[in-house]
């Protein structure tokens, strides 16, 4: 049996301006029919805080935050929700359309069903890695806090110990969908405390797995842990979406288009980093 082909963009480490521009560009190009559905994983270098598209209030002191001698940029996401600290986390992004993969007629127009259909690969992948996940129960985020990880809505995934494991957000443009989210892997509790007043994201997925299953195959020291996690999640995505993911890095021409979409931070500008 042949499966539809999706684009798998190899992991990218870059600043928040570029990362959000890549996600926006992929959605724009997919909606125009110039790009197939896609999946990618990425990290934020240097550390940044992303704000939800409609988020208009945050502590003034965030304008002056630094981490290890670098300013922490405030970046606007194209999706909704509350603020997310991007330090020690892995971000995923899926760009697809209604009717593609496992987005059947049953999910069309149903935001919760769409979240669950897309997030299923995360549930499957982390279960294979040894961390079973469940959906949050809150109907909507707590508007009294700026921190995304203070509330686990039905769009989010929660560990067995009750800690929110993955926070996701969506943007829809007609029938096309961007869903991306943050997976705290090895966050710094002290930095979370300084920004949000609480650690907010627990121990992170790696330390949690080390605590509950120190002999897990996912912790094999012969393979970098993040590499292993991404490989398992990619495999789960192929099975859940019923597609074949073909690795295809962004080209120089595509980077030029993406760079034109990159918005400046909401606090003072700092030099941009090229992706690595």
List the helices and strands and how they pair.
Layout: E1 5-14, H1 16-31, E2 38-44, E3 48-51, E4 66-67, E5 70-71, E6 73-76, E7 84-86, E8 89-97, H2 111-129, E9 134-135, E10 157-158, E11 164-173, E12 176-184, H3 189-196, H4 205-212, H5 225-241, E13 244-247, H6 252-259
Parallel strand pairs: 1-2, 1-13, 3-6
Antiparallel strand pairs: 2-8, 3-7, 4-5, 8-12, 9-10, 10-11, 11-12
Helix pairs in contact: 1-6, 2-5
* Major beta-sheet overview: 8 strands, mixed
Mean pLDDT equals 88
Tally of contiguous helical segments: 6
Q: Strand tally, please?
A: 13
**Low-pLDDT windows of residues:** none
Strand order of the largest sheet: 9-10-11-12-8-2-1-13
- Determine the fraction of residues in helical runs and give it as a percent range: 25-40%
Order of helices and strands: EHEEEEEEEHEEEEHHHEH
Shape: globular
Distance between the termini: 36 Å
Compute the gyration radius: what is it?
A: 18 Å
The amount of beta strand, in percent, is 15-25%
Pairing-aware structural class of the strands and helices?
alpha+beta
In short:
With 276 residues, the protein is of the alpha+beta class.
């Amino acid at each position: 049996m042949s499966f539809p082909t999706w684009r798998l963009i190899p992991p990218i480490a870059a600043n928040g301006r570029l990362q959000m521009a890549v996600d926006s560009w992929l959605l724009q190009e997919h909606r125009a029919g110039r790009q197939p559905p896609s999946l990618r994983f990425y990290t934020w270098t240097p550390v940044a805080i992303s704000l939800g598209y409609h988020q208009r209030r945050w502590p003034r002191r965030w304008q002056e935050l630094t981490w290890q001698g670098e300013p922490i940029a405030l970046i606007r996401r194209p999706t909704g929700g509350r603020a997310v600290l991007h330090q020690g986390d892995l971000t995923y992004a899926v760009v697809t359309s209604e009717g593609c993969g496992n987005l059947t007629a049953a999910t069309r127009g149903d935001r919760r069903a769409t979240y669950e259909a897309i997030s299923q690969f995360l549930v499957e992948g982390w279960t294979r890695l040894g961390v079973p996940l469940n959906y949050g129960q809150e109907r909507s985020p707590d508007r009294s806090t700026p921190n995304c990880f203070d509330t686990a809505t039905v769009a989010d995934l929660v560990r067995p110990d009750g800690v929110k494991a993955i926070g996701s957000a969506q943007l829809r443009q007609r029938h096309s969908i961007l869903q991306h989210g943050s997976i705290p892997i090895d966050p710094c509790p002290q930095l979370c405390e300084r920004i949000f007043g609480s650690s907010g994201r627990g121990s992170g997925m790696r330390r949690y797995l080390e605590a509950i299953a120190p002999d897990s195959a996912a912790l094999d020291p012969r393979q970098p842990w993040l590499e292993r996690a991404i490989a398992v999640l990619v495999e789960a995505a192929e099975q859940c979406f019923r597609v074949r993911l073909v690795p295809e890095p962004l080209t120089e021409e595509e980077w030029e288009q993406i760079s034109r979409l990159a918005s400046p931070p909401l606090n003072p500008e700092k030099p941009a980093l090229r992706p690595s």
